[in-house]
User: Fold this.
Amino acid sequence: MKLLKEQIIKEGKVLSDTVLKVDSFLNHQIDPLLMKEIGEEFANRFTDEVITKILTIESSGIAPATMLGLTIGAPVVFARKRKSLTLSENLFSSKVHSFTKNETNDISVSKDFLSANDNVLIIDDFLANGEAVKGLLEIAEQAGATVIGVGIVIEKGFQKGGQLLREQGVRVESLANIKSLENGKVEFYD
Amino acid sequence: MKLLKEQIIKEGKVLSDTVLKVDSFLNHQIDPLLMKEIGEEFANRFTDEVITKILTIESSGIAPATMLGLTIGAPVVFARKRKSLTLSENLFSSKVHSFTKNETNDISVSKDFLSANDNVLIIDDFLANGEAVKGLLEIAEQAGATVIGVGIVIEKGFQKGGQLLREQGVRVESLANIKSLENGKVEFYD
Assistant:
């Protein structure tokens, strides 16, 4: 997605060979117009599918997922992160390890909002090692829902998450796929 | 706002005389079309003001704030919650106590995204005791920004937050203002 890649080049901050900060339009400040374009691009990529529910995770997945939901007319559910969950019978839950923050969070979704009748599209802001997406896939599986695929705003293609998911047969669509952050420079695939 | 009040009556769950759960369209599952209408209604309420930045707090403020941002063409910044912040010179921060969860979080906004040149509209999902809004006002003050007002999706008018803010001269616009949750029934002002 050209507009997104331009924004990454213009405003992204390469903090190391593995860390790209896009706080000015996605992770802290949000550019609503770009989010709308991102939502429409996800809708185009999955236009062949019937989507009954968009599943994402707080907080940075919410804006792009909501714009996709507006475009296709589907509700969004965001999984909640907690350091540790009190047990509840009414939750689907899984564990997500963040390598950046070196912490493991429980994530959960109420059983009220995901069921075996749902065709789910998973949306997230970043895909690196794939931990968050794995957690969301587990939750969808617990619900017995069908996962149509995964839509990612920025994939770090030099890390293993995307490859592992695709090898498992999961359809992953990334709007920008980064080949390298070496020497302080963003290089994309394609 | 008629559509919102209807949705609250239809889908809100009154858990006690003070607790209203609207997880099916605002706090866990998100109804994107309703969020768009909410964004447009906020834009109408503040149409006489120039807004350069929308300030909200993760996670449930993000969807309505982003839809407002799309309507008026302004960026959104969401304050981040942390149990305890590592000190950083590049952050505005304050403390927010949640009576519902009985915990205090630090909230913060990067100095990169808020300045003395900004005309800020604060957006949040709920207003009860006003703790979150107070924290956001403090952050805006640290930045030297001008606060235009506060837009709230659901105000619990029977709690003291809204009154205290208005007494301080803060303009507060609530799209639904609840008079009472007694006897398991939602009653609105007006």
